[in-house]
Amino acid sequence: PEPRTTQTMKGGDNAAKRESVESFPYVCHLVSDEREQLSSEALEAARVAANKTMTKLSSKDAFHLRIRVHPFHVNRINKMLSCAGADRLQTGMRHAYGKPQGVVARVKIGQVLMSIRTKDTHRAAAIESLRRAKFKFPGRQKIIESKKWGFTKYTRARYLELQEAGRLLPDGATVQYDN
Q: For the whole model, what pTM was predicted?
C-alpha cells in the first residue's frame, strides 16, 4: 500500500466530510503569506495536528477539514561524495540530473492551504487547530475567517435568502444553484 501521506493527499478530506452543507456553516482558512514549497511531510504533520486539536476541543464528527494544496512537484538531489579521493569517482556537474528526494506543493502568496468547516459553537476550536497547524510549516501563514456559508461560494445572508426561496440543491459539502 501507499504511504499514509499519499493516501490522505489523494482525498484531502478529514472527519465528517459526508456531513450535509447545512450542518457546518462556519469556515476558516489557513492562508500562505509567502511563496514557498511545502513538503508532503509538512502537510501531513499539519493535517494530523489540526485533526487532533479539533477532535480534542470539539468531537470527531463536529467538523470537516480539507487540505487545499497537493504536493505534485518532485524535488531532486544530485548527491556528492565528501570522502578522500571523491574527485576521482565523481563527475561534478556533468549529468547532474538528480534522484527524486520527495514531493512538495508549490504555494503562492494568498493561497489557501487548509480549510475547516464546523458549527458556529466550535469557532474557537477551529482557529486554535489552524494555529497549531501553522507551526508545522516554514514561513508565515494567516488564519482567515470566511464570510461564506461552509465551502459554498455564497455569503451567509445570500445563502439563507436562496435557501428560503428554494433555489439551492445540496451537493455534498457544497450546493448547486437551481434556475
A: 0.85
